[in-house]
């Protein structure tokens, strides 16, 4: 007998709590971005700690500061967010853990896209190991993608058996 609960479909209350948590993290990220722009030192002048520092990094491109113009990044971001939003919509009732993972990726992507639209760059404020700059939206995106892939491998295939 398997004593572990099936986490691919948590209870509706757990799904709502997960969704509320993801939206709260997205809101916290927006507030931290605004705060960082006003109060954090620029990473080039800040005294960075060895593991974690709070400093302002203006990322003009995508991950790892790869310089891709907004006119290219924004449509790609919206298409990817739409694909993940479809996963949220189609899997919410049957595989809500995967849907929550997709929701995390959508909220993170929209958070960074909104930041790019407003500021012309993505505001990163967590400096890891003196070299990597991230924000909470990046964390949501990464965890969301990992979760969608993880749960996709755990969901039985719907192909009929011959």
Description:
The protein contains four helices and three strands; from the N terminus they run H-E-H-H-E-E-H. By secondary structure, it is mainly α. The chain has one domain (12-154). It has a three-stranded antiparallel β-sheet. A hairpin with a 3-residue loop joins strand 2 and strand 3. Helix 1 packs parallel to helix 3 and helix 2 (70-91) packs antiparallel against helix 3. It starts with 11 loop residues before the first helix and ends in an 8-residue tail after the last helix. Mean pLDDT is 88; it is low at 1-5.
Total strand segments: 3
Number of helices: 4
What is the H-and-E element order?
Answer: HEHHEEH
Oligomeric nature of the chains: single chain
Low-confidence stretches: 1-5
> How many distinct domains?
1
Give the amount of beta strand, in percent: 5-15%
Spatial order of strands in the largest sheet:
1-2-3
Basic shape = globular
Query: What do the pLDDT scores average to?
Result: 88
Specify Rg, calculated over alpha carbons: 18 Å
What percent of residues adopt helix (DSSP H or I)? 55-70%
Give the class from helix and strand content and strand pairing. Answer: mainly alpha
Task: Report the sheet with the most strands, covering strand number, pairing sense and barrel closure.
Answer: 3 strands, antiparallel
- Rounded to the nearest angstrom, the distance between the terminal CA atoms is 29 Å
